Amino acid sequence: MIEEKGKKFLTVAPFQCAWRKDLKFREAGRGCVAFDAFAHNDVTVVFRENVGSEHYHYKRDSTPHYTVILGSHRNRRLKIEVDGRTVVDEEGVALCCSSMFQSYWISIYDGLISVGRGRYPFQNLVFHWLDSNPNCNVRYVGLSSWDKHVGYRNVNVLPLPKNHMLLWKQVDSGEYEGTDDGDEELESGQMSYERWGLENFLESWELYDVLFIVGKEERPVPAHRVILQASGNFPLSLSNEDAIQLQDATYPILHALLQYIYTGQTQISDSQLGSLWALSLQFEVMPLAKRCEETVERFKLNKKLFDSCKNVELSYPSSQPHCFTAFPSQLPINVQRLKQLRTTGDYSDINIYIEGHGLVAQTHKVILSLWSVPFLKDVYKWNE
């Protein structure tokens, strides 16, 4: 019996498997599932080419599939099976918890299976394994169990980061040999800063530490707390457990807001301008709120502007010399606020120590990545 309580909580009875059509990779063979689980043992996630039947169980499956079992052998081992054959059996790795929900993520990229802990996918990697004969057609995700009930909640299927090579970089050189495209990208052109900026982190899963949960479909959108707080006033805590619920908002409105913050410009249809204005006021992104207000007033004076049916372009004025030496002048970043966050260490996610001096700074990975090539190249090592 599979019991579903509301939309977020799911209990899978022994020897059962739950399938939902929305638990599907956008691209065959490539994707990530993030979830919370509560179990004594055998939190089991199945990846298949097609949705399983109501009475499906992975032990009886004769079709191609991957199975990842957290807490196998009475919660002592991590197991990975390929078409029913055990290929990984590791002791003491990625075990489950029977006293509370714990967060996990499992990603697949062309046979590279990565398992991690925590709310934030692609961080806190605990294990990976590379299939030498990968199944690049798996797409559907099933939530299963063994001999005891397993509770699941907050299950989301996510695309891989734009720079999916961060997963490949963590594979031992003995397991994977080939050209490291990620390093080539960093080294080409000596990593020109004209081609690298905050816009590269727009809605990126790289280094994100906060999620917007948008609309009734609860779409997760990643962001970076230090950038948000240097641009406005967002409801964030000093812990790493932030999720901002926007049930009444739509993704295009939030995307426009974040695009303005991360790039200094955005486009939106005139019919959505009012909603963007309201959201920018809600989070006190005042430069954007002012631009929305000015545009609305201009439309009121000249209604013919609506006849074009084109998107409205909103840009941050870049003629602010006090910003130039500290942060790109075309971004709506409050430099004084950014300096304050650096001084206080609020929302920091990395500590810097110098031998003989101890702790010298509590700072932010995303900021360091913007201005330092060595830090940028090491950025994924921080997440291990």
TrEMBL record:
It comes from the Eukaryota. Gene3D superfamilies: Potassium Channel Kv1.1, Chain A (3.30.710.10). Residues 208-270 form the BTB domain. Pathway: Protein modification; protein ubiquitination. It holds the Pfam family BTB. PANTHER family: BTB DOMAIN-CONTAINING PROTEIN-RELATED (PTHR47457:SF1), OS05G0345500 PROTEIN (PTHR47457). This is BTB domain-containing protein. The lineage of its organism: Eukaryota, Viridiplantae, Streptophyta, Embryophyta, Tracheophyta.
